[in-house]
Amino acid sequence: MKDIITLGIESSCDETSVAVVKNGREVLSNVINSQIKIHEKFGGVVPEIASRNHIEAISGVTEQALKQAKITFNDIDNIACTYGPGLVGALLVGVSYAKGLSYALNKPLTGTNHIEGHIAANYITHKELKPPFLCLIVSGGHTHLVHIQDYDKFNIIGKTRDDAIGEAFDKVARVIGLGYPGGPKVDNLAKEGEPNIELPKTHIDGLDFSFSGVKTAIINLHHKNPNINKADLCASFEKYVTDILVQNSLKAANELGIKTIALAGGVSANSYIRKEFLKLENDGYKIYYPEPILCTDNAAMIASAGYYRYMTGVVSNLELNAVPNLKIQD
Predict the structure, then answer these.
(1) Cα dihedral sign for 225, 139, 145, 132?
(2) Backbone φ, ψ for residue 179 (5° rounding)
(3) How high is the pLDDT of residue 42?
(4) Residue partners of 270: CB distance under 8 A and separation at least 6
(5) Are residues 238 and 304 in the same domain?
(6) What whole-number distance in Å separates Cα of residue 57 and Cα of residue 17?
(7) Amino acid 67: pLDDT
(8) In this structure, are 196 and 304 located in the same domain?
């Protein structure tokens, strides 16, 4: 069977990334141009600034990706680009660039879902992983429990009813003065503390999540006592949300009769969350998660997801547009 070379393009938020991936799993290059330093002073991503920086970076990032992969445009079989969900202006940069390449090179184009890309990051790190399995997607914009029935078949069985978990991490970090990006900073500080602060429990029937209550509780605690031990506060918050993630994941896995659980998304890089999920292997579960560079936004995961869409016959036309609120499998 002929090798399929996919050029992946990711620009959904504040990373401009282009990657070259062979057969959906072998990364030949994965170049990421991050804007974190640019947005740090604003305490979060400024959409217009993000879009402008994508425009400035995307051609150079593409050249680097091709050079590192030691290929030319002629060697590409398919172009996969993120068309949602994400910031509409940022998405449009990647989509427009991908459409231009597709037209100029006469190469097929596959619009790819960013969230499905996070799931596919596991295929790159774990070559042996195949559907079906349960995937917990935890990121700045999403908290989903998804039954991965096949490479192109997804069933959301649980999701957040308010804040995404990454959003809660960022808000907690901002309130206690850690700055942006909040997730890694909360994780690091929590290692110095103890989870000894009691937080109010939010009970929700089923497999959905809610993080707005604990976020508000942390904010109120800090406002009432600005001298509260921030390391203990972070450790308590981290333990609270992780307990919920593990509890719902186990419940879903038992309902589905599945013993394979994968983590995905930026928050899946959290060291405490990984440690707690790995404990489940003592009970016969198999836990997967991507290497850290593939947890955050990157084009290798988009190339992988795009490859599997392309192999099922999904080819987009040049009318492809950005869809900021795109749902899984749309």
Answers:
(1) negative
(2) 90, -165
(3) 79
(4) 183, 187, 238, 242
(5) no
(6) 9
(7) 98
(8) no
DSSP track, 189-216: HHTTS---S-------STT-B--HHHHH
User: 172 pLDDT band (50/70/90 cuts)?
Assistant: very high
Biggest CA–CA distance in the chain, Å, is 65
What digits encode the pLDDT tens for the residues 98-150? 999 999 999 999 999 999 999 999 999 999 999 999 999 999 888 999 999 99
**41 pLDDT exceeds 80?**
no
CB 112 within 8 A of CB 140: no
**pTM metric for this prediction:** 0.94
Separation between Cα atoms, residue 9 and residue 303, nearest integer Å = 7
How high is the pLDDT of residue 168?
92
User: Can you say whether residue 285 is alpha, beta or left, with left for phi > 0 and alpha for psi between -120 and 50 degrees?
Assistant: beta
Domain assignment of residue 255, given as a range: 131-290
d(CA 128, CA 55) in angstroms, rounded, equals 37
| Neighbour order of strands in the sheet with 78-84 | 26-34, 15-22, 5-10, 78-84, 109-113
Same domain as 31, residue 175: no
